[in-house]
């Protein structure tokens, strides 16, 4: 179970728990994790998955001829396929491991957290999905720069995108190494190199086609594995939710409070800031936004959000059942505790609750399958992140800023592949450098940057006529810098990482403070900008509005 100390850190850790695969798993609970004996079932199933995905990559490579194929799978993905892929990006291994552990330790608080995490989807569905598809081509910078200064705005968007991508990548790589050391018995550095190498192969050769199908397969495996464990565990209580909750309350240290909101809402400022980061950060994540350019039209974009929302909602409920079942099945079984002491330290750390439950209800075979799925999850998400980072470098910076839109497709594609390899190497090296660090703050930073730098400028560029280049630049950079500073000065970094006595910034989540700064600065400097260029940018909004509503010209979006 989570100890008191880990609960006191929950504000930074909560975000990490579900937002990024395996972040909680790479937090304090796993710092001391010892390498386990080789899990042959898991390794065998993982290699089956790898061979299958390499086959997909080989097939995808033959279909990846142009930049459109590489970045967006040629816009040929259906709404259902894209919905599965988005869900695959979203349903991370931390969703499985971290939220199950949180449900096991804190009861209904975990479910409240899942709900708050879910609220970001209606924003994307109703405010963004259609306009994203109609206005963009490869990256969200296509939209923010639509009627603004291409070079300056694209550079700002690319910088904030790469910041988000890099912090996410570090989180993935450290989590991968720690989890694989634990589950597979492999060396940490070997795990990093394997993940990095496979990610580079997927993206470099297969582009978005391969990445999409790897994410779809991973999502299906996660759904099958999670459902199997949930059904087998729930069957032990006759599929009666009343019996399950009553027995859980009898044995859990929280007792009746297991089903009452508790520590998560103890600090309302942090809770609100966390909620804002989760809601609007989701709508500003480059690798999520990029998925909307892979579908054929705006209708399919909306469909993909609906399918993704339904899949994620279903999986969250499966996790809730797993967590409650684990309280009795795992929490009352001495074989899952060090020294056989019930209520003591869980073998492998608190985040291994889901794995122990799989072992208890399905033996080594189900445990092996779930372990392989956890590793596959990392590969899929890392591939999506690498593609988002590579597109920011090649499409936004190289093609649009350096070459002023005159780069040929073959050269841009070549730059993308080199960028992917470069990001892969950087991710592996950073993973090695940050092995011992609690990376929860990195994810907090990634979401804070996405919510503060990407989202305000993106949403205002689509909905506000008064936005100018000067406003977008000042607002975007203000959101980026303030989010980074607030996290650096918070307890998560200033005290826990840098070792200072007390935090300068009293809260662990930046979004409540950095988002208003970004919006205010964007509004102020846009309003004050009376230049001729600003007037022309405001007038261009009408044309943008028509395109956003109708999609006319979306097929040839490269010209802007």
UniProtKB/TrEMBL annotation:
Signal peptide location: 1-25
Parts forming coiled coils: none
Localisation per UniProt entry: Cell inner membrane
CDD domains: SLC5sbd_u4 (cd11480)
Membrane topology reported for the UniProt record: Multi-pass membrane protein
UniProt keyword list: Cell inner membrane, Cell membrane, Ion transport, Membrane, Signal, Sodium, Sodium transport, Symport, Transmembrane, Transmembrane helix, Transport
Biological process terms in GO annotation: plasma membrane acetate transport; sodium ion transport
GO terms for MF: acetate transmembrane transporter activity; symporter activity
Keyword Transmembrane: yes
CC terms in the record's Gene Ontology section: plasma membrane
Pfam families associated with the record: SSF
Ranges annotated as spanning the membrane: 41-61, 82-104, 110-129, 157-184, 190-214, 221-239, 269-293, 305-330, 365-394, 415-433, 439-460, 472-490, 510-528
Keyword Oxidoreductase: no
Classification via Gene3D superfamilies: Sodium/glucose cotransporter
Main location: membrane
InterPro entries for this protein: Na/Glc_symporter_sf, Na/solute_symporter, Na/solute_symporter_CS, Sodium:Solute_Symporter
Family assignment from sequence similarity: Belongs to the sodium:solute symporter (SSF) (TC 2.A.21) family.
Name the UniProt record assigns to this protein: Cation/acetate symporter ActP
Source species of the chain: Thauera aminoaromatica
């Amino acid at each position: 179970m989570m100890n008191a100390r880990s609960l006191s850190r929950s504000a930074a850790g909560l975000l990490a728990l579900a937002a990024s695969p395996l972040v909680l798993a790479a937090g304090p609970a796993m710092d001391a994790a010892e390498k386990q004996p080789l899990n042959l079932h898991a390794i065998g199933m993982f290699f089956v998955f790898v061979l299958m995905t390499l086959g997909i990559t080989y097939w995808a490579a033959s279909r990846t001829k142009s930049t459109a194929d590489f970045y967006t799978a040629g816009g040929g993905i259906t709404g259902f396929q894209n919905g599965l892929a988005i869900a695959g990006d979203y349903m991370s291994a931390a969703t499985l491991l971290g939220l199950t552990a949180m449900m096991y330790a804190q009861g209904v608080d975990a479910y409240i957290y899942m709900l708050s995490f879910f609220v970001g989807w209606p924003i994307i569905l109703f405010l963004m999905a259609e306009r994203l598809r109609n206005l963009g081509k490869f990256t969200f910078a296509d939209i923010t720069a639509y009627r603004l200064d291409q070079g300056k705005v694209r550079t700002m968007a690319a910088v904030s995108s790469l910041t988000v991508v890099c912090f996410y990548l570090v989180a993935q790589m450290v989590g991968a190494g720690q989890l694989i050391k634990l589950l597979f018995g492999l060396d940490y550095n070997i795990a990093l190199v394997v993940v990095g190498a496979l990610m580079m192969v997927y993206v470099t050769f297969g582009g978005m086609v391969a990445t999409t199908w790897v994410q779809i397969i991973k999502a299906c495996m996660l759904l099958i594995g999670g459902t199997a464990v949930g059904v087998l565990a729930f069957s032990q209580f006759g599929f009666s939710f009343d019996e399950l909750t009553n027995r859980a309350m009898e044995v859990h240290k929280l007792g009746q409070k297991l089903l009452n909101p508790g520590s998560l809402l103890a600090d309302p400022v942090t809770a609100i800031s966390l909620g804002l980061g989760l809601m609007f950060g989701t709508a500003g994540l480059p690798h999520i936004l990029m998925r909307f350019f892979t579908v054929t039209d705006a209708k399919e974009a909306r469909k993909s959000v609906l399918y993704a929302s339904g899949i994620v909602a279903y999986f969250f409920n499966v996790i809730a059942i797993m967590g409650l079942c684990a309280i009795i099945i795992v929490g009352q079984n001495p074989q899952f505790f060090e020294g056989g002491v019930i209520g003591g330290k869980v073998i492998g750390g608190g985040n291994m609750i889901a794995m122990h439950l799989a072992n208890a209800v399905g033996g080594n075979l189900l445990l092996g399958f779930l372990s392989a799925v956890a590793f596959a999850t990392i590969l899929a998400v890392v591939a999506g992140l690498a593609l988002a980072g590579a597109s920011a470098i090649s499409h936004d910076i190289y093609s649009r800023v350096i070459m002023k839109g005159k780069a040929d497709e073959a050269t841009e594609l070549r730059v993308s592949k080199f960028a992917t390899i470069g990001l892969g190497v950087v991710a592996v090296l950073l993973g090695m450098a940050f092995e011992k660090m609690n990376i929860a703050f990195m994810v907090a930073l990634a979401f804070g940057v996405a919510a503060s730098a990407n989202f305000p400028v993106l949403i205002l560029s689509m909905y506000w006529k008064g936005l100018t280049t000067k406003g977008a630049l000042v607002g975007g950079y203000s959101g980026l810098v303030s989010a980074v500073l607030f996290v650096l000065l918070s307890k998560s970094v200033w005290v826990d990482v840098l070792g200072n006595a007390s935090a300068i910034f009293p809260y662990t989540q930046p979004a409540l403070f950095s988002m208003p700064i970004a919006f205010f600065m964007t509004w102020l400097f846009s309003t004050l900008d009376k230049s001729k260029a600003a007037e022309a940018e405001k007038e261009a909004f009408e044309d943008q509005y028509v395109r956003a509503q109708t999609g006319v010209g979306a097929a040839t979006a490269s010209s802007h």
